[in-house]
Amino acid sequence: MPIRQLSETMINQIAAGEVIERPASVVKELVENALDAGAGRVEVVTAGGGLNLIRVTDDGSGIPEQELALAIARHCTSKLAENIHDIRSLGFRGEALPSIGSVSRLSIRSRTASGDSAAEIGIEGGRVLPVRPAAANRGTTVEVRDLFFATPARLKFMKGERAESSATSDVVKRIAIAFPAVRFTLAGSDRSTLELPATDDTPEGSLRRVAQVMGADFPDNSIAIDAMREGVRLTGHVSIPSFTRANALQQYAYVNGRPVRDKLIAGAIRGAFADVLPRDRHAVTVLFLTLDPAIVDVNVHPAKADVRFRDPGLVRGLIVGAIRQALGDAGIRAATTGAAGMMAAFRPGAASYGHGGPANGHRSYEASYRASGPAGFDPARSPQRPLDMGFEGAGFEHRGLHENEQAAFDAGPLASADARAGQGDAVDTLLGTVLGAARAQVHENYIVAQTSDSLIIVDQHAAHERLVYEALKNALHSRAVPSQMLLLPEIIDLPEEDAERLAMHSETLARFGLGIERFGPGAVAVRETPSMLGETNVQQLVRDLADEIADNDTVETLKDRLDKIAATMACHGSVRSGRLLKAEEMNALLRQMEATPGSGTCNHGRPTYIELKLADIERLFGRR
Question: Considering only CA atoms, which of 557, 577, 575 is closest in space to residue 514?
């Protein structure tokens, strides 16, 4: 087949294959155009998951009538000057509208602030319709009908209506977080209406918008981030370690206000929380990176979902360092969801007590009494009977109050919980601390403590495990890691570029006990390995390090392996469940937890303590 010039319609359809993957992609492009136009209100309406209808209305600056034809032409845009490296808008290629129009029925109706009337233009499967007058308020309305009708094969790859609607909701929420001063509405016959009222651009307003999208629990269980390094600024919020999700869908990242799904940022978040989260749990994050547009390339992905940083190591180090610093500075905090779960477990009727009667309810007692009368009252059938009364049938076979059994308690006064903890009246200074004063130990594993306004329950093994782990880590990384010399050096063949990267990081690796040197153009010789690793697969370790350096320019793989050994040692060297602790030991453990960053979770990511506020306890007893 000879080489020939493709038609304009075919070119646009090819571009649509890259940019327009599904209805959510169309919504993303149109909402970004509205925001670039300075909109303060964006309304999105869909039907059939977006395949039948997508309508985006804004109150932005609008498009002059004489520019409507240009707006639907390829590579025509008002957002890009002559410098491709200075992109400050969400869109810049000028491909979205012609690409959408080539695979759907598209109409654009717009009116500027100074215009006397609106104008409308349409495209049907790539065929441009003439501009005609229209009635509209200031702003622009873009309507897309019958998406992919011109390319029916694409419809076979669409998911169900519910899945497409969910993807659209996620796109709108993701964009809305970055623009708190804009009001967003998402409605349609295929969904429940989502309304996100405008707040403002202050940090408080931004957090209110985050709460609208992610739920009211997030602000109460998050830590503010604000860090700067070499011209790159990181702001936002991350969840405390005890507030997690089963997937990473609630990790939002933005680069100069642009929503991105970048693997470098995702990896940095995962690395920052590696010590405090289980492997199957994920942090909840909203992070904003602000930097010079010249040092980030946003033109590396057709949908602009990925970006490329000039110095990826700087960005990764900033994210990991800022999050870990914030977690450390925040001290010890328990997730509010833990207390909510605890209250739910305590509520009457929440658990089965092994008998048919209600756990609480005076009405049932009165009904039972009225039905039988005083003379015919049967204690064995009462809903309020104890769990084991010793009744057989309707008669008393064991009368009395079991005086012989009770006599064992007459030997002396019972010690109160305060006395068992050796505290007497707790010192006011201890009650004012984060974890309060130890009052008792129950089931030989849980420390019950009291603060001025709450009740604390601490898992002593999990808490001490974290303390020992942090101490081991600090000792491990405060000096060079001891190494063991190999009897025979291990020669590992690698691509020359991998060998060169390892040689460049040889000093850092030596600090962790791994001695590496070049051995010819395409190999390295390993002469020492960290003593802590014992017998290990040196070849696999070195290859993993080479891959990580190629991806992230870091050597975290070796550090993570050493930390994992330290975590195992901490688990076996901590206070075991079943050990009785003295009052002084319990209080000492609480004070160490308060002074140790990350002690709200153990090495495996489980919470080390739960806090129940006094107000919550009063609600359980009907006092509030």
Answer: 557
At 328 the three-state DSSP class reads helix
Selection from 474, 434, 463 nearest residue 601 by Cα: 463
- Sign of the alpha-carbon torsion through 468, 269, 194, 89: positive
Report the candidate in 226, 296, 201 with the shortest Cα–Cα distance to residue 258: 296
DSSP-based three-state secondary structure for 492:
strand
Mean pLDDT of 561-566: 73
Q: Is the pLDDT of residue 532 over 80?
A: no
Q: Which residue has the tokens 């291990």?
A: 490
Which of 247, 245, 242, 202 has its CA nearest to residue 222? 242
Exposure string of 16-46, with b = 16+ CB inside 10 Å and e = fewer, is beebbbbbbbbbbbbbbbbbbbebeebbbbb
User: In whole angstroms, what separates CA 39 from the centre of its chain?
Assistant: 29
In whole angstroms, what is the distance from residue 422 CA to residue 177 CA? 51
Tell me whether strands 296-297 and 308-309 are parallel, antiparallel or unpaired: antiparallel
Distance CA 603, CA 277 (A): 8
What tens digit of pLDDT does each residue of 381-423 get? 544 444 444 444 444 444 444 445 444 444 444 444 444 444 4
pLDDT tens digit sequence for 115-159: 888 999 999 988 899 999 999 999 999 999 999 888 888 888 888
Nearest partner of 561 among 513, 494, 501, 489, judged by Cα:
513
For 178-212, write each residue's pLDDT tens digit: 999 999 999 988 788 999 999 998 989 999 999 99
